[in-house]
Amino acid sequence: DPYANEPTRHKALKINGNKPFCAEPSSSLLVESFLTPVPFFYVRNHLPVPELELKNYTLELAMEGTTKKTLDFKTLKKYKKMTITAAVMCGGNRRSEMSKVKQLKGINWNVGAVGNATWTGARLCDVLKDLGVDENAFNHVQFEGYDLDPSGMPYGASIPISKAMDPRADVILAYEMNGEPLSKDHGFPVRLIVPGVVGARNVKWLSKINISKEESQSQWQQGDYKGFSPSTTWDNVDFSKSPAIQEMPVVSAICEPQDSDTIKINNGKIQVKGYAWSGGGRKIIRVDVTNDKGKTWHTADLMEDLQAKEGRYWSWSLWNVELPVDKKLKEVEIWAKAVDSSYNVQPESFSNIYNIRGLLCNAYHKIKVQLNQ
Ligand code: MTE
Ligand code: MO
Q1: How far is the CA of 167 from the centre of ligand 1 (A)?
Q2: pTM of the entire structure?
Q3: CA-to-CA distance for 35 and 117, rounded, in angstroms?
Q4: Could you tell me if residue 33 is inside a domain?
Q5: Prior bond to 20 cis, omega within 30?
Q6: Of 44, 361, 91, 115, nearest to 224 (Cα)?
Q7: Which residue has the CA at smallest separation from atom 8 of ligand 1?
């Protein structure tokens, strides 16, 4: 069993799949802290966790497949140490809501396939500059992990070279998460962090970086993590026609209360909490919440990364709001939507953004709760 030596995991994680291991925290746990504690950070593995030792660790740097340099851990640590705060979100986060529209394929994530952490490591742009990479001679930077499928193929993904070489994009070869060495599940000893970009490109257990004219040819870059029209079916889908998801769209979720909870009214009000985030470093400028299906919108208070620089808002924002409720009501429906700094807004319904892989699930979050007088 290739999964015989998997790391132990915190009991609070709700398991969505065991082999490979996929799990998320409850939504109330998620909004308890601005930085997600490592044991509660969602895990999305596609393959068995590779067993790696620091002293034997190597990272291969190649151009068009030809190795140029091999870095060991010590050499990587000599690069200028950078720390950023960034959320990582799976492209399938909130898929369980989209799956109510129509059947789809994928792990049934709730709102917890996201976490916010500090990531410390070397900047990818520094390592590539050292290698003498000419940005104009290539188009993509490909990454491989030490985790292998049964045929020996590694997990792989790529990002555009412009992103990889931009110092303002803050792409990190991370060896610490929340100030501690990376845990096994989150990519020990080194993983890629591409802030603002879909989780799938944040390659864990990094083994190889290849500068190329082409995108990664991996299944996860070519035949998965792409969006389609709601009318595309498994019979007529052509994966080569859609671009791979990179920067994520604006999204928010209600984390407290949860759908079908029974809650107490306090001084005629109920308290609602959640998170909001947008890809590409776009800041969350507002979260609107309604409990009368959009007749009245209430603006939530935001807790955000105050250190973030313009265009580099990689962190999520947590929000909370007190909604006045009519005492006569037994049940209330709550909706939330976020707006980012480009004035992108979430779409209202899942039916018009449905796609067969259940990705980019960023419609308004709508829940119903019972009121206890
Ligand atoms: N990297 C490797 N090597 N193998 C993987 O299976 N999963 C990807 C990405 N990097 C994956 C990987 C996906 S789809 C996501 S959403 C994130 O890692 C999850 O990161 P986490 O488990 O640290 O939360
Ligand atoms: Mo993912």
Answers
A1: 23
A2: 0.98
A3: 5
A4: no
A5: yes
A6: 91
A7: 200
Q: Which atom of ligand 1 is nearest to the CA of 154?
A: 3
Residue 100 forms part of a structural domain: no
| Mean pLDDT rounded to a whole number for the chain | 97
The DSSP 8-state label assigned to residue 231 in this structure reads T
Dihedral angle, C-alpha 308, 314, 42, 354, nearest 10 °? 140
Q: Is residue 341 part of a domain?
A: yes
Determine the pLDDT at residue 372.
87
Number of domains forming the structure of the chain: 2
Phi, psi (5° rounding) for residue 38?
Answer: -50, -45
Give the domain-ending residue among 199, 219, 241: 241
Would you give the end-to-end CA distance of the chain in angstroms?
54
| Cα of 265 from ligand 1 centre, angstroms | 40
Instruction: Give the mean pLDDT of 225-253.
Output: 98
Q: Give residue 328 CA to ligand 2 midpoint distance, Å.
A: 43
Q: What is the ipTM for the molecules in this complex? A: 1.00
Q: Which amino acid is at 189?
A: P
84: containing domain? 50-91+112-241
| Residue length of the chain | 373
Both tokens of 32, joined, read: 């308890």
* pLDDT band, residue 29 (cuts 50/70/90): very high
Give the closest ligand to the alpha carbon of residue 46.
Answer: 1
Is 32 inside a domain boundary? Answer: no
Tokens 């990002």 sit at which residue?
159
Bridge-based pairing state of the strands 331-340 and 365-372: antiparallel
**Structure tokens that stand for 12 in this block:** 């609070």
Decide: 257 and 230 in contact? Cβ < 8 Å.
Answer: no
Q: Token match 């990479």: residue?
A: 133
